[in-house]
Amino acid sequence: MNNLNMAKIQLNGLSYEINDGTNLNQLLNKLKIQKNKVAIEVNGQIVEKNKYPKLILNKNDKVEIVHFIGGG
Amino acid sequence: MEDIFTIANKNFNSRLIVGTGKYKDFEETAKAVKASSADIVTVAVRRVNITNKKEPLLMDYLDPKSITYLPNTAGCYTSEDALRTLRLAREMGGWRLVKLEVLGDKKTLYPNMIETIKSTEILVKEGFEVMVYCTDDPILSKKLEDAGACAIMPLAAPIGSGLGIQNKTNIALIKEQSSVPVIIDAGVGTASDATIAMELGCDGVLINTAIAEAKDPILMAEAMKHAVISGRKAFNAGRMTKKKYGSASSPENNLI
Q1: Coil, strand or helix: which one is A58?
Q2: How many Å is the Cα radius of gyration of chain A?
Q3: A12 touches chain B (CB under 8 A)
Q4: Contact between chains at B43 and A33 (C-beta distance less than 8 A)
Q5: In this model, does residue A4 exceed pLDDT 70?
């Protein structure tokens, strides 16, 4: 009964549901995002790429995933 | 004579830096960048669109291994936001060479120099190589250099205005006093503006809107490339002295 073990986080300003115990690598896989093309902030703190597998997301965490876009 | 363009101990062939915003799509962006022959492109840091996973990525069109990405802080109005943006950019792939821009006003997009100087000091301490967008004020430009900026980037005119160089005297003064490269950033409208910047002795020019909003952006990118080369060569050649009256180009003796 996985549905009972879901947690809501704030992802890029939107409400997003994850399985309990999801780490940042798993979140990126689910979103089909390659980690070498982004940077991630959790609750205002930048997370180094080598820490993605260890960082387990908690309920109400504020996650920002950013990348480069065109700009002047 | 070799004429090398060096920023933060790194050499570049082209003195033209181009922005990657405002294009129709990434395909056009890539074509314009290629036509410009720029070695450095500015890029912005923004949220990934998590609702549309098929959204194209800039990196798939412009390979950061073959062109230098210069992350910017466009849209930041406080030192805090600018620092956050550049720290994220660095985490993305080790970018240390960055463009700092802290805006002060939404209408003019003029830089807030107090926040800009403050941010420069912090970023330099954190090991960033900071190219700084600034007003064309010689005193504040000097302060930026003292704070450790690796390039001074005064505006020619407001961002996206296309008005050309509004204060040639100030730009020349800034260039004269600076020991780091001076790059005109913002306000260039057409090729002659870029040439004038280079003729004033500037080390480079950063252009986005003038290329992206031209009717034919790719042709304009090529025009800007030649304009920058032309202005640089004219500067190195040393222009003739201006005279008040005519001076015949053909010999005046032995006339028939």
Answers
A1: coil
A2: 12
A3: yes
A4: no
A5: no
ipTM of the complex as predicted? 0.91
Residue B99 known to be catalytic: yes
Contacts of B72 in chain A (CB under 8 A): 71-72
Residues in contact with B212: Cβ distance below 8 Å, sequence separation at least 6, in sequence order: B19, B21, B22, B23, B32
DSSP state of B241: P
> Identity (one letter) of the amino acid at B2?
E
Asked if B170 and B136 count as a contact pair (C-beta separation under 8 A), the reply is yes
Q: How far apart are CA B80 and CA A20, in angstroms?
A: 32
Tell the residue number behind the tokens 């300003």, with chain if given.
A13
Alpha helix (H) residue ranges in A12-54:
24-31
> What is the rounded distance in angstroms from the CA atom of residue A45 to the CA atom of residue A42?
5
Residue B97 has pLDDT above 60, yes or no: yes
Q: Average pLDDT in the A14-39 region? A: 93
Q: How far is A5 from chain B (nearest CA, A)?
A: 22
Mean pLDDT of chain B: 95
Q: Does residue B152 have a pLDDT over 80?
A: yes
pLDDT tens, position by position, B33-91 = 999 999 999 999 999 998 887 788 899 999 999 999 999 999 999 999 999 999 999 99
Counted residue by residue, chain B has a size of 256
